[in-house]
Specification:
The chain has about 325 residues and is of the alpha/beta class. The chain contains eleven helices and ten strands. The structure holds NADP nicotinamide-adenine-dinucleotide phosphate. NADP nicotinamide-adenine-dinucleotide phosphate binds next to strand 10 and helix 10.
């Protein structure tokens, strides 16, 4: 495993980060722990969770915490081997202070996450989404407090545009607050609305950790035009967490698959390898349900794409790079 620098943090992380959004349901606790251990035994040291993750049972405002509990249990005796990322902002209840990026919510949720994760520090604390009601100064000052208290080591941002990351850098410099080290954004062959921010991240040494590089499993070759989705797939089990299986999508998937065939690699590995070639990308965060999916993701980190392959893939998956995104991780 070739470890990579996570932005300016000095942390060396695996080129694949283990996502935990499906832990709790459909992946139960015992299987989730087995997957975490198997990933770590194979060299993955980077784990991404969030205070709200509880698998497919999650609904807007549900209390979450399930995936963090599972990760905490999995890391008993192994905490120092992991770089652990968790997030704050999404609603965890119906009350006005149960969401967002106020100091009250952030500082309460840091403590709750620490308790569930059974650790006394979080390596990477991520502001999950921008909060338009709260000045960024307020949120960064709260993270600074958590860092000074030894509860958090580094700051990450998620779903923030380049200009918002830039604002956080100005504020950090002005106030001596922690500098953002990573940006977690959606990015795949099929979805690129944040792509133009990658050059900014590279220039300012911010590690990009894309989520849904497999576009919820669409970029794995398992969905076929005109056929129902496989019974154990996300499209069958949780259709509101995946794009609609429409003809224009299959046009792109089939063209990308022909490049995978030419290269002699599975479509999933090609999709992850494409993400890994993008500027400033450190580690795509991959969601998994089974051990073979972890092994597939690890193999993708060794796939080498030439500039010509990247060009062919870009031609295979032209804009528009969106469907309404159903997943708010
Ligand atoms: N910051 C945010 O707002 C945000 C939002 C979303 C996600 N995230 C993070 O990103 C992680 C990944 O997100 P995600 O799980 O939605 O997207 P993903 O990684 O694109 O998709 C993962 C799903 O694809 C399928 N899959 C994975 N490897 C496969 C393989 N080799 N062959 C066939 N199918 C395969 C599995 O589903 P099935 O087997 O069920 O089909 C798996 O659950 C999350 O766990 C979370 O940590 C963050």
């Amino acid at each position: 495993m070739q470890y990579r620098n996570l932005g300016s943090s000095g942390l060396l992380v695996s080129p694949i980060c283990l996502g935990t959004m499906t832990f709790g349901a459909p992946v139960g606790e015992a299987d989730s722990i087995k997957l975490i251990h198997a990933a770590m035994d194979r060299g993955i040291n980077f784990i991404d969770t969030a205070n709200v993750y509880e698998g497919y049972k999650r609904f807007l405002g549900s209390p979450g915490g399930v995936a963090e509990e599972i990760v905490g249990n999995a890391l008993i005796g192994r905490r120092d081997k992991a770089i652990l990322a968790t997030k704050v902002a999404a609603p965890v209840g119906p009350g006005p202070q149960d969401r967002g990026l106020s100091a009250t919510h952030i500082l309460r949720e840091v403590d709750r996450s620490l308790q569930r994760l059974k650790t006394d520090y979080i390596d990477l604390y991520i502001l999950h989404w921008p909060d338009k009601e709260v000045p960024l100064e307020t949120s960064l000052a709260a993270v600074d407090q958590a860092v000074k208290a030894g509860k958090v080591r580094y700051l990450g941002l998620s779903n923030h545009y380049g200009w918002q990351i830039c604002e956080s850098l100005w504020l950090a410099e002005r106030h001596g607050w922690p500098r953002v080290v990573s940006s977690q954004i959606p990015l795949s062959l099929l979805r690129r609305e944040f792509h133009h921010d990658l050059a900014f991240c590279r220039k300012h040494n911010i590690g990009v950790t894309p989520y849904q590089a497999l576009q919820s499993g669409l970029l794995t070759g398992k969905y076929r035009r005109g056929l129902p989705p496989p019974t154990d797939s996300r499209a069958a089990e949780k259709p509101d967490w995946i794009w609609k299986l429409e003809a224009p999508l299959f046009d792109r998937l089939e063209r990308a698959e022909s490049v995978a065939k030419e290269l002699g690699v599975p479509m999933s590995q090609l999709a992850l390898a494409w993400t890994l070639t993008q500027p400033s990308v450190t580690s795509p965060i991959v969601g998994v349900k089974r051990l073979d999916q972890i092994e597939d993701a690890i193999a993708a980190a060794s796939v080498k794409l030439t500039a010509d392959h990247v060009k062919q893939l870009d031609a295979a998956c032209p804009p528009p790079w969106t469907q309404n995104d159903p997943v708010r991780g």
